[in-house]
Request: fold
Amino acid sequence: MMIVMKPGATGKEIQAVIDRVQSVGARTHISAGDEVTVIGAIGDREHVARLELEGAAGVDRVVPILKPYKLASSQFRHGGRSVIDIAGRKIGGGSFAMIAGPCTVESREQTLEIARIVRDAGATLFRGGAYKPRTSPYAFQGLGQEGLRMLAEAKAQTGLPIVTELMDLRDLDAVLEVADVIQIGARSMQNYSLLTEVGRSGRPALLKRGLSSTLEELLMAAEYILKEGNGAVMLCERGIRTFETAYRFTLDLMAIPVLKELSHLPVIVDPSHAAGRRDLVLPLSLAAAAAGADGIIVEVHPQPEEAICDGAQALPTSEFADYMDRVQAAADVAGKALRTAA
Ligand code: PEP
Ligand code: MN
Reply:
């Protein structure tokens, strides 16, 4: 349920509504716009309805939220869009974010070299995994805390905020020391205790769509983070499983406009994991940018053929600046500016 206050409703009237909603055990989420304040009431609908808030002082109207996800729904934001601030860099709105880096952190030199190259080309954020979700338990699992230290050094040297994956709650504190954005991998999208703790941490999250998840399931997963009072959630389309075997996953481009219709949260596209093949990364990136995505997360490596993981899909760092120019042209079509380094 959303309680839309009248323009000019007083602080006292707003507080009185909040108190009444909380008195029946529902939670409140306040969004204070320039003109009106909207109070989201999350809890038993019947209990809130019985309060008959339509008649309360300062209330304009009470609107039910029909979707199963509430805080993630566009309705909750009244058609407004979330813009997330990551150390002064805006994700969403008129900006287009480029999140680039290796699949996994391999060594100090490799990490610093890639971070410098993508920073110089104008990337917005640096990505790199220290904890890797690998299909095989025998494959390289990531450098763990050592990898996190390398990411911290890359951040100190380049000023680029860090995006890195958290797989296991036992690593939360260590990841929080370094990550400006916590990545929740596709395989963890429905790890609800992980989502809740990331929500409680208050750290911005990049939530990847599960391999076989519907958009509604993705938005319900986002709701787990949002319900803890953490509004900084980016949704990420990274390809889904279909019957097609010519490429690794099928990038669901329709998810971009449809997620934007259903939700106010920014939408990031990962062409690398969708394709599994380098040659498809540019066309998919162009399509995603032109379709209105708020950014791209892409894997790059100085010697892709020698990469420890996902080399086949990594763009060579030598081609990254050119790639950025091409993506900027496509983002222009959608009226979004790719932020360049100062
Ligand atoms: C990754 O970003 O390195 C990754 C493993 O992605 P996903 O969870 O989408 O497979
Ligand atoms: Mn990868």
Q: What stands out?
A: The two ends are 43 Å apart (CA to CA). The pocket of manganese (II) ion (ligand 2) is lined by residues 103, 273, 299, 309-310 (CB under 6 Å). Residues 145-158 form the longest helix (14 residues). The chain has a mean pLDDT of 95.
